[in-house]
User: What shape does this take?
Amino acid sequence: MTDLFASLSTLCLATVMALAPAAALARTSDRSKPMDIDAGSSDYSMDDSRPTTLSGGVIITQGTLDIRSNQAVIHSSGGDPVRAVLTGSPVKLKQELDDGKAMDAVASKVDYDLKSEIVVFTGGVNIRQPSGSIAGERVIYNMKTGQVQGGGEDAGRVKIRILPKNSQGGG
Assistant: This one.
């Protein structure tokens, strides 16, 4: 069960970091808070032969972080999490930023590859925070480089809104 909690903790941290720009990180104190997981059912494997699956209205909370999905699937290799996939109608993520402002995101699927540190949001993606928003059918965030890509040939158009600083409360 420890591997499951480690997997989910890594997933939550990665997902939150993917949603927040470098200037406005998600509440860093949340990482030191206990994580609570509530699901209708779980199918947990003690080895890497198959993924751990949580389903039936998955709710993950840690400090101000709140994730809601229909299902969470965590793949492991060598006892360490290597990929986490959240699916829902939609997946909903909310968290308070360090400056006290709210950030939230929705997508049909959130797929996080822990080895490459790339998070892919697909299906009705809408990520909002005080500095603006990005929406589309597919948004890719590379945690190593900070690169954010949206839209593309088969992913439809992407819509980005950048709010003026005076409307963000930052002056």
About this structure: The radius of gyration is 16 Å. Confidence is low (pLDDT under 50) at residues 1-25. Strands lie at 35-38, 41-43, 52-62, 65-77, 80-96, 102-113, 118-129, 132-142, 148-150, 159-162. The longest strand covers residues 80-96.
